[in-house]
Specification:
The complex is a heterodimer.
Chain A lengths: L1 H28 L4 H6 L5 H11 L5 H13 L13 H36 L4 H15 L2 H15 L12 H30 L2 H8 L4 H31 L1 H6 L5 H10 L3 H29 L8
Chain B lengths: L1 H24 L5 E6 L20 H7 L4 E3 L5 E3 L2 E6 L5 E6 L13 H11 L3 H6 L3 E8 L2 E6 L6 H4 L10 H14 L7 E7 L3 E6 L12 E6 L3 H10 L4 E2 L4 H4 L7 E16 L9 H10 L2 H9 L4 E2 L24 H10 L7 E6 L3 H15 L4 E6 L1 H7 L7 E7 L9 H4 L1 H4 L13 H12 L3 H17 L3 E14 L2 E2 L16 E2 L1
Parallel strand pairs in B: 1-10, 1-11, 14-15, 14-16
Antiparallel strand pairs in B: 2-3, 4-5, 5-7, 6-7, 8-9, 9-10, 11-17, 12-16, 12-17, 13-17, 18-19
Classes of the chains: A mainly alpha, B alpha+beta.
Chain lengths: ~300, ~500
């Protein structure tokens, strides 16, 4: 197990290098001279040239990339070209908001999606199955910005149950987490339902049923564990994408998270901030995928993790 | 047991929700929460390394103070300078500074600080764009400074109310440097910069060393709300008390009687400027066809629900130096005349490309203009791009026109200088030569900024505007609008032409 984890962590290195180099390349060829953008339109040609020199923009791309990565290896993600703030500090100050949002949203998806999927599978082609399906599809069809806005109007302005914006305490995250989870909920319900139905057809389940086990016993003790593997993969993937993909939810609920930090940086070609966030996201996704694989082994003893 | 536990959990949830609701409903008469659209992150007024945005200006004007203050109707009032005079040749301003003023760290403010600040700002690129014709400043005694200009500059006193006349502590600046000063701003203003939480808010609290009257608002939270709908929700739910740079169309749909709003002509102007170097816009008849084909009132309705003032010349109402009606030529909407000019041109249906910035009022305006031009037979295309790409594209010369607002911070006709004086507009290679300049216009721009007689300046600028109109080099579409929305129990909030000039110590809760 230890060897396997070490191997997977080592494999992350080329992945991170590949991703960061690709993003660095794209940022470098994008239109707009960062030196001009930083200094504004009143800057003189000499000042722009000096700024380019200071930022190393006149160096070849590969040299700039190597210099950047050398800094990263020393724990230095650099400073924002625009605000001048330390990228690491900016990122870390926003990370708790994004992680809280991601965890809560996943919790909602798991707590609602998996039971609904089980319920739908147990009542296949019945009214409960169809109702579950319709509700799940309805939620997933609603765009996050619209669902969030409606939730704010009815639950925050009219009923005053929840705060509409900000990231003060856990209360502030309830509406955003519900909004963020709606998109993945339908997929979770459908995936759980399909997995359970597939496992239901297997011989050992038929045997359990013929032995006289109750339906609940069969589902909870025999079917669910085996049916959970694809569900775990889906949950892992969903959580990994939240780090950079919650931009709409963060914007609608004014949550200062990592996604909004990155989008604002992309708009103004703030390379150190974009790169810093990308480095973290690529490592994070790699680690989450590793955890997903470890979960496989925990859930299904037949899965062997070999180095 | 399980049921009891569930009951306790539900009751706890309800109780905590009730506590939250009650807490958020209780108004605090010493605090105000202000919403803004972009994150402010530069807190040293003349930072040479960092970019600036509109949303940090109100913070700067409450932590620091300028020498002169502009009132709600742009009238000049004493602030750190109590009186001023101008030499006969119009090149030296002598200012008497307020005595007994301290920085928030306890250091005294004096002429050395003022001279040091102006001598830092004046030569910098952004400072020079505001403090026109600046040469140097000297301290004559502890509380008197003399500002020397290379040539007279008509709107100079207005410039002394702007960002590049905000005073900082020379001693601390020299001790800790620009970057540290940016993180720990020290000014003479009524508020202290207390905290910045990345992406969320900036906190200002009352400065006990403030020389003036103690404000009734002691704490100001400056919150970042980038989405327009979110801003409206926060306003309606009472999570923010004031919203600056508010979207007028959204304000008109507010569903609460607890919020009031007001709008004022802003300092920025929307211009469609032609690139006269390439076809079809190198043909004056084509440009005149576009001039007559634009129904500006429709653009105003489409962008601001009619709340803005339709433009006629590139000088907004209220700007000093703006010529009086009748002094300059005005082009009225006339589609028939537009068709006549189009027929007289060499236009063969090739694309007429307008470059603009996506997601902005400029894009909406360009799209409405596109529809109007298609109606008279012009194959108009709108190329909307992000701000960075747009800035780069303006050096390429591949488009026929740009549709973009242009802002000035001195509320004077001299704002034209930056677009219409060739030497200035094409410096640094930022803008290529679009063949829309003339020696006469260049000279008028220089004469206008040096002029000291108001009537004479109006004549100069009327002449300049007529040259632009006759050559159809540009079409002024509308004068932008600044709107501010606020809780109806908050008094003293006034919409300003310059967005940054909100003074929180003028505000009070009823």
């Amino acid at each position: 197990m230890g060897k396997y984890i070490l191997k997977r962590l080592l494999l992350l290195i080329p992945v991170v290098i590949g991703i960061t180099f690709f993003i660095y390349l794209i940022m470098s060829v994008a239109p707009g001279d960062p030196a001009r953008l930083i200094l504004g339109e009143n800057a003189t040609a000499e000042e722009i040239a000096a700024k380019r020199l200071e930022l190393g923009l006149d160096d070849p791309l590969i040299v700039r990339y190597i210099n950047y990565m050398a800094g990263v290896l020393h724990g230095d993600l650099g400073f924002s070209w625009y605000s001048g703030y330390d990228v690491m500090q900016e990122f870390l100050s926003r990370l708790p908001n994004t992680v809280t949002l991601g965890l809560l949203s996943n919790l909602i998806t798991i707590c609602i999606g998996i039971p609904l999927g089980i319920l739908a599978a147990q009542h296949q082609y019945g009214p409960i199955d169809y109702t579950t399906l319709v509700i799940a599809m309805l939620f997933s069809s609603m765009p996050a910005f619209w669902f969030g806005l409606m939730a704010q109007i009815y639950l925050s302005i009219n009923l005053k149950w929840f705060p509409a914006t900000g990231a003060g305490d856990l209360y502030h995250f309830i509406l955003p987490a519900i909004t963020l989870s709606t998109g993945g909920l339908a997929g979770q319900v459908r995936l759980t339902r399909t997995s359970i139905l597939e496992v239901n057809k297997l011989d050992y389940v038929r045997t359990a049923r013929s032995k006289g086990c109750s339906e609940n016993q069969i589902v909870m003790h025999h079917v669910l564990r085996n049916a959970l593997l694809p569900v775990i993969t889906s949950i892992g993937g969903h959580f990994a994408t939240i780090l950079g993909g919650a931009i709409v939810t963060e914007s609608v609920f004014a949550i200062p998270g990592v996604a909004s930090l990155m989008i604002n940086a992309v708009k103004v070609r703030d390379v150190p901030v974009v790169m810093g966030v990308i480095v973290f996201i690529s490592v994070f996704v790699g680690v989450v995928n590793l955890l997903v694989d470890l979960c496989y082994a925990a859930v299904d003893p037949r899965v062997k993790l070999t180095a | 047991m399980k049921k009891s536990l569930a009951l306790v959990l539900v009751l706890t949830l309800i109780a905590s929700m009730a506590v939250f609701t009650t807490a958020s409903a209780a108004p605090d008469k010493e605090s105000v929460i202000v919403g803004c659209a972009a994150e402010p992150d530069c807190f040293f007024p003349g930072h040479t390394k960092l970019n600036t945005n509109m949303d940090e200006v109100p913070i700067l004007h409450n932590v620091y103070e300028s020498l002169i203050k502009l009132g709600p109707n742009n009238e000049r009032e004493p602030l750190l300078a109590t009186e001023w005079s101008l030499s006969e040749d119009g090149k030296v301003y002598t200012l008497k500074l307020r005595e007994g003023v301290k920085f928030s760290n306890g250091n005294d403010f004096n002429a050395e600080d003022a001279a040091f600040a102006l001598n830092l700002y004046g030569p910098s690129p952004n400072g020079a764009a505001q403090l026109g014709n600046y040469d140097f400043t000297e301290a004559l005694d502890e509380y008197t400074i003399a500002i020397h200009l290379t040539d007279p500059y008509a709107p100079f006193l207005n410039a002394l109310a702007g960002r590049y006349a905000l005073m900082f502590d020379k001693e601390t600046y020299e001790e800790i440097g620009e970057d540290a000063y940016n993180e720990h701003p020290i000014g003479t203003g009524p508020y202290l910069f207390t905290e910045r939480v990345s992406g969320d808010h900036v906190q200002l609290d009352y400065n006990p060393n403030y020389w003036g009257e103690e404000p009734s608002i002691k704490h100001v939270t400056w919150r970042v709300l980038t989405d327009t709908n979110t801003q409206m929700v926060a306003l309606e739910s009472g999570e923010i008390d004031v919203l600056t740079r508010a979207n007028i169309a959204a304000l008109q749909n507010l569903m609460t009687d607890q919020v009031e709003w007001q709008a004022k002509d802003a300092s920025s102007i929307e211009n469609l400027i032609f690139n006269c170097a390439i076809a079809p816009t190198n043909d004056i008849n084509f440009r005149k066809a576009v001039q007559y084909a634009i129904n500006k009132e429709d653009v105003n309705i489409g962008v601001f629900n009619g709340a803005a003032t339709v433009g006629d010349i590139p000088i907004a109402p209220g700007f000093s130096g703006r010529p009086d009606a009748g002094q300059y030529e005005v082009i009225e909407y006339n589609p028939e005349k537009a068709k006549e000019y189009l027929a007289a041109s060499n236009y063969n249906g090739e694309p007429f490309v307008i470059a603009t910035v996506s997601g902005s009022n400029d894009e909406v305006s360009a799209q409405i203009i596109q529809g109007q031009l298609i109606e008279i037979g012009i194959n108009c295309q709108v190329n909307a791009m992000d701000g960075s790409t747009y800035n780069d594209a303006t050096t390429s010369g591949t488009f026929n026109a740009t549709n973009r607002f242009g802002g000035v911070s001195v509320l004077d006709a001299d704002g034209m200088y930056y677009t219409w004086n060739k030497a200035n507009a094409t410096k640094n290679g930022l803008y290529f030569d679009t063949m829309r300049f003339s020696d006469e216009l260049d000279q008028l721009m220089i004469d206008g900024r040096k002029g000291t007689d108001d009537a004479q300046r109006k004549e100069i600028y009327a002449k300049a505007c007529n040259i632009i109109t006759e050559n159809a080099w540009a079409v002024t579409i509308f004068y932008d609008v600044n709107a501010v929305a606020y809780n109806k129990n908050l008094t003293g909030v006034v919409a300003r032409s310059l967005n940054g000039l909100y003074f929180f110590n003028d505000w009070n809760w009823n």
